[in-house]
Amino acid sequence: MDIQFVERNGNLVVKIRGEIDHHTAQNIKYAVEKEFSASNAKNIVFDFAHVGFMDSSGIGMVIGRYKELAKIGGRVFAINIGTDVGRIFEISGLKRIIPCFAGLDEIENNIANA
User: Fold this and answer.
1) CB 3.0 to 4.6 Å from 13: which of 6, 36, 81, 110, for a disulfide?
2) What is the largest CA-CA distance in the chain?
3) How far is Cα 46 from Cα 88, in angstroms, rounded to an integer?
4) Containing domain of residue 49, as a range?
């Protein structure tokens, strides 16, 4: 598993490569918390372009970031969820809570027009 961070226009983009399961979800959580607290970002964007599998631990990790950011007026978004991760988002109800977009530009346009 590999995590890369990019800060762009108030968004901390979290690019994950690999599987998100009970072995990796906790590491992702801690890495995201550390990077977010050191950044000037208001929102977190999870990029799932290179995630082929996510279990309930991944759902919990995303929901946890959602709850933390809601406390400070921030938001969590998802991009590039693909078929497999998209199915998990649908079945779990995560898609009703976390807005999903094709890419970062679409999120930025959505926020600017809100």
Assistant:
1) 6
2) 39
3) 14
4) 2-106
Number of domains in the chain: 1
The enclosing H or E element of 7 equals: strand 2-8
C-alpha–C-alpha distance, residues 54 and 24, integer Å: 10
Instruction: Give pTM, 2 decimals.
Output: 0.94
Per DSSP, the three-state class of 26 is: helix
Q: Is residue 17 one of the residues assigned to a domain?
A: yes
Residue type, 44: I
Residue 114 belongs to a domain = no
> How far apart are alpha carbons 1 and 99 in whole angstroms?
24
CA distance 76 to 63: 9
Percent of the chain with pLDDT over 90: 89
Q: How far apart are CA 26 and CA 34, in angstroms?
A: 12
Tokens 């279990």 correspond to 55
Which residue type, as a one-letter code, is found at position 18? G
Q: Is 85 helix (H, G, I), strand (E, B) or coil?
A: helix
pLDDT tens per residue across span 76-94: 999 999 999 999 999 999 9
